[in-house]
Amino acid sequence: MNNFAFTKINYILLVVGLLIIILGFMLMAGDATTEEAFNPDIFGDRRIKIAPMVCLFGFLFEIVAILWPSKCNKKEVAEKV
Fold first, then answer.
1. Residue 53 CB coordination number (10 Å)
2. What angle do CA 26, 32, 54 make, to 5 degrees?
3. What phi and psi values does residue 50 have, to the nearest 5 degrees?
4. Structural domain includes residue 71
5. pTM exceeds 0.85
């Protein structure tokens, strides 16, 4: 009997979600505005709309990865009923 909280698939899904979150933060990165020059790219769609949505999707994916049921848990619940 395996007493771990997560199965292999849970860990794989957690890593995928983490990579999605990192991708979202990488999309937010870029040059900043200085006192000498204004950079209009800080208000671009990629930084304002797309990157936060990617990060949000990554965090929601992490929740799904944590709650993903394992096959042995399904069997145990079916046997108890």
1. 11
2. 25
3. -70, -50
4. yes
5. no
* Domains held by the chain: number: 1
Residue pair 18/62 in contact by the 8 Å Cβ criterion: yes
Its domain, for residue 70, covers 8-80
* 2 within some domain: no
Q: Is 3 part of any domain?
A: no
> What is the SS3 assignment for the chain?
CCCCCCCHHHHHHHHHHHHHHHHHHHHHCCCCCCCCCCCHHHHCHHHHHHHHHHHHHHHHHHHHHHHCCCHHHHHHHHHHC
Q: What is the pLDDT of residues 37-47, one digit of tens each?
A: 888 888 899 99
Query: In this structure, is residue 56 part of a structural domain?
Result: yes
